Amino acid sequence: MTGFVIVVDMQRDFVMPSGALPVPDAQALIAPMQDWLGALDPAAVAGVLMTFDTHLADVYAGSAEAGQFPLHCLRGTAGWESVLDAHVIDPAIPVYRMEKGVFDMWAEPGLAVSRAGEQPIDRDVFFATLAGRGVDNVTVVGVAADYCVRWAIEGLLARGFRVEWPAALTRGIGREAEAVAAEIADSALKIQPII
Predict the structure, then answer these.
(1) With 0-12 CB in 10 A as exposed, 13-18 as middle and 19+ as buried, what is 133?
(2) For the segment 17-55, what is each residue's pLDDT rounded down to a tens digit?
(3) In this structure, what DSSP letter does residue 60 have?
(4) In which region does residue 158 sit, left (phi positive, over 0), alpha (psi from -120 to 50) or beta (all else)?
(5) Which domains are delineated in the chain?
(6) 139 within 8 A of 165, measured Cβ to Cβ
(7) Collapsed DSSP state (helix, strand, coil) of residue 39
(8) What is the dihedral of CA 88, 75, 5, 37, to 10 degrees?
């Protein structure tokens, strides 16, 4: 079995206490997540995708999300940047990125997955190609368990992937990973929370 990793929105605005929308205790994820990423085995992991919540001030002001949360992860600002150093990942493991403007990485049309030095690939084509190469298990980590992480997982399950979700590498805004995993597991049996 070949695996894949998605690191959801580990950005300063979410992770640092001084960020525009800090997730409780998210800063505690940085060191263990760096260690975990550094220990990934190229023989077992086909790639790592880092998602970036990405907003533009004029677009965000009219969005449904603006009714719930203050402006955050403004493209090009310090709050938009990742708190993780992707260079700890074994160079034999490709590292990809995807910028998204809504909670659900599957809901926004026209998103692309990119890698330095390569042409961007349509998100849906990218994941269909992974599945076609035999990648069937995806590990999802990051923030926030009750928003973007949840929808990432639900979208993966809908596309036929099995999902592992290490609760120790995730934090939620209002609910923690264990509670959200139980809700998802009620409707989808292929999730494997790692508590």
Answers:
(1) exposed
(2) 999 999 999 999 999 999 999 999 999 999 999 999 999
(3) H
(4) alpha
(5) 2-142 (3.40.50.850)
(6) yes
(7) coil
(8) 20
H-helix or E-strand containing 33?
Answer: helix 30-38
Question: How far is it, in rounded angstroms, from Cα 109 to Cα 12?
Answer: 25
Asked whether the beta carbons of 57 and 74 are under 8 A apart, the reply is yes
Q: What Rg value do the Cα atoms of the chain yield, rounded? A: 16
Cα–chain-centroid distance for residue 142?
6
The residues near 70 (Cβ < 8 Å, ≥ 6 apart) are 20, 21
In the numeric block, which tokens belong to residue 61?
């002001």
Give per-residue pLDDT as tens, 59-91. 888 888 888 899 999 999 999 999 999 999 999
